[in-house]
Amino acid sequence: MLSFDPEKVSLPVGHYINGHHIQTQGAAFAVKRPSDGKIYATLREADAADVDRAVQIAHQAVKISGWAGCAPRERGRVLRRWADLIEQDSLLAQLEALGSTRPVSDVVQHEIPFTAEAIRFYAECADKYSGDLFPTRDSSLGMLITEPYGVIGAITPWNFPLSMASWKCGPALAAGNAVVLKPSELTPFSTVRMAELAVQAGLPAGVLNIVQGSGAVTGHALVTHPLVRKVSFTGSTVTGARIMSDAAQHGMKPVTLELGGKSPQLVFDDAGDIDVVAQRILRGFTANGGQACVAGTRLIVQRAIAAPLLDRLTVLCRSVQPGVTWDGDSRYAPLIDERQGNKVASVIAAAKAQGAEVLVGGERFADTAEGWFWQPTLLCNLAQDNPAVQQEIFGPVLTVQTFEEEEEGLRLAAHEIYGLCAGVHTLSLPRALRAMRAIEAGTVWINRYGRSGDFIIPTGGFLGSGIGKDLGRQAFQACQRQKSVLIDF
Ligand code: NAD
Question: Other C-beta atoms within 10 Å of 255: how many?
Answer without folding.
Answer: 21
